Hints:
Layout: E1 2-7, H1 14-24, E2 27-30, H2 31-37, H3 44-53, H4 66-73, H5 77-100, E3 107-111, E4 126-131, H6 134-145, H7 149-157, H8 162-167, E5 171-174, H9 179-196
The protein binds dephospho coenzyme A and adenosine-5'-triphosphate.
Adenosine-5'-triphosphate binds at residues 8, 10-16, 32, 113, 140, 144, 175, 177-179, 182.
Amino acid sequence: MLRVGLTGGIGSGKSAVARRLAEHGAVVVDADQIAREVVEPGTPGLAEVVAEFGEEVLTPEGRLDRPRLGEIVFSDSARLARLNAIVHPRVAARTEELMAAAPVDAVVVYDVPLLVENDLGALYDVVVVVDLPEEEQVARVVANRGMPADQVRARIKAQATRERRRAAADVVIDNSGTPADLDRRVAELWADLSARA
Ligand SMILES: CC(C)(COP(=O)(O)OP(=O)(O)OC[C@H]1O[C@@H](n2cnc3c(N)ncnc32)[C@H](O)[C@@H]1O)[C@@H](O)C(=O)NCCC(=O)NCCS
Ligand SMILES: Nc1ncnc2c1ncn2[C@@H]1O[C@H](COP(=O)(O)OP(=O)(O)OP(=O)(O)O)[C@@H](O)[C@H]1O
């Protein structure tokens, strides 16, 4: 098994790279998706979040009100640290389970926004960083997810700098071009990863 850690700032294009790698044959494990699963209704994770942040972070249906919690934690680093302390150990445990279940000859790609922030590089054979200028990150998230620009900037501030992320990379994928450019870069990356596997 070749373990690949795939990271990048918000809106850099990690999920786009992960999707293309999956089409080439990689097994993809998605940290953002796991982070949602561990706070689904009825989970101990959601109970802990409510104990910490109060019922105001629940929707009327009893689900986590994610935009609301995002507004709270990305404007207060102490509260973000408390949320991370609840969610990250659960994500790490579930990630290990999913990676261990992959076939022995697989290229397993862990799509994780906070690889550098959480110092996870040593767990992976190859660290791939998807790189984009910050103002392009803001523009893409505003255009494609409708998130207000100031909230994108607040998340960027809670993340590692571009320089720090690039310094942790074995491979940097520049995603400042078109989606077709990205297709070509990912095809080259897949050839490289397959050769290492
Ligand atoms: C605050 C929450 C509820 C906001 O949910 P929302 O649906 O708006 O965003 P989503 O989870 O889809 O994340 C989108 C992007 O925001 C950024 N982001 C999310 N959490 C964090 C964080 N703790 N620190 C820095 N950036 C983050 C990442 O770039 C991520 O890809 C959610 O992000 C959360 O629970 N975060 C804490 C858990 C976490 O760190 N998840 C990231 C992967 S483990
Ligand atoms: N080369 C590109 N040109 C234009 N748009 C792109 C390009 N690559 C990705 N996008 C778009 O930019 C947005 C962000 O990409 P994506 O969701 O893959 O990023 P991400 O790094 O996974 O972000 P997040 O941290 O928010 O999960 C998406 O809507 C995607 O379709």
